[in-house]
Write a structure and sequence with these properties.
There is one protein chain. The protein is of the alpha/beta class and 343 residues long. An eight-stranded parallel beta sheet has the order 3-10-9-8-7-6-5-4. A two-stranded antiparallel sheet has the order 1-2. Helix 5 links the parallel strand 6 and strand 7. The N terminus is likely disordered. Bound molecules: flavin mononucleotide (FMN).
Amino acid sequence: MSGAISTDATLDSPAKTTAAPRLSTRFTEALGIEYPVVQGGMMWAGRAALAAAVSEAGGLGVITALTQPTPADLVAEIERTRELTDRPFGVNLTILPSINPPPYDDYRRAIVDSGVTIVETAGSSPEPHMEYFAAHGVQVIHKCTSVRHAVKAESVGVTAVSIDGFECAGHPGEDDIPGLVLIPAAADALSIPFIASGGFADGRGLAAALALGADGINMGTRFLCSQESPISDAVKKRITQASERDTCLIFRQLGNTARVARNSVSDEVVRILNGGGSFPDVQDLVAGARGRRVFDDGDIEAGIWAAGLVQGIIRDIPPAGEIVTRVVREAREILAQVIGRFG
Ligand SMILES: Cc1cc2nc3c(=O)[nH]c(=O)nc-3n(C[C@H](O)[C@H](O)[C@H](O)COP(=O)(O)O)c2cc1C
């Protein structure tokens, strides 16, 4: 079991290059970063400026491979990230079943040939990729939604696991286990470092994750709503106004649940599928091109877009680096208070 506050999360003296003192866990030690705060891969949003801002602040920024139309574009985006930071960053490789799969092997090669040493895998087992990544010195953080998949990832040699609770934006899986149970269950089952994901936005969340046995946190929606996030301000404003009740689970009937922001399109998709419809009946509504119009043009009702329950506690649009330092500072204050009161 990992992450007991008094042992695994060490509150050191201030580091030379950043404002807040280092917060070391097994995860930060394994990945060579300063703070146990990760910006998870996000389709369309996970680009150089956002990832670099998170890494530059001492967290781990992640650019999203499939956001780039070709492997060559991914190489260029990795270069752009390097121009903005010389700190470690990762690349997300999401591998989902698809009728016309992207050239995953070419993206994988682009990552390795670019000298990236941290990959966040998601969507399916990392096993088929482990030999290749290990041979090229790449550390894999596998993101999954269940303890059994986390244990499997550990058995095939990943460096760390990122475990997404039911609260998360995007694909929470089909088990519906919220973080309050999933995180300590993962802590009991895993020997490698792991980070908690889904529902985190501030220092209260990081402190809680550490107390539950995690070695850090991964955030999506919180970073989507930051200055460097390359989406329309209208979407960010919408997140700051939304409550925790303003998300919707689509594709439940298809066994491919996704948590998205509730709007007229998500409601329509649920209505059609509840009425006995199948995927072709909603294909146009959920098309990626419509989702892009939301992010690019700020037309909130144009299509579906991922957002987590945590939007209910996101109320501002700060620089991504400020999010990292604020989360760590708040967590340190909370942990110190708790230790002061009960320690
Ligand atoms: C707009 C958006 C797009 C996302 N796209 C991906 C993706 O392509 N691949 C992936 O592994 N996770 C994706 N995620 C999930 C995040 O990496 C992260 O696991 C999740 O947002 C955590 O939950 P939170 O939003 O409550 O922090 C996405 C999340 C958002 C908000």
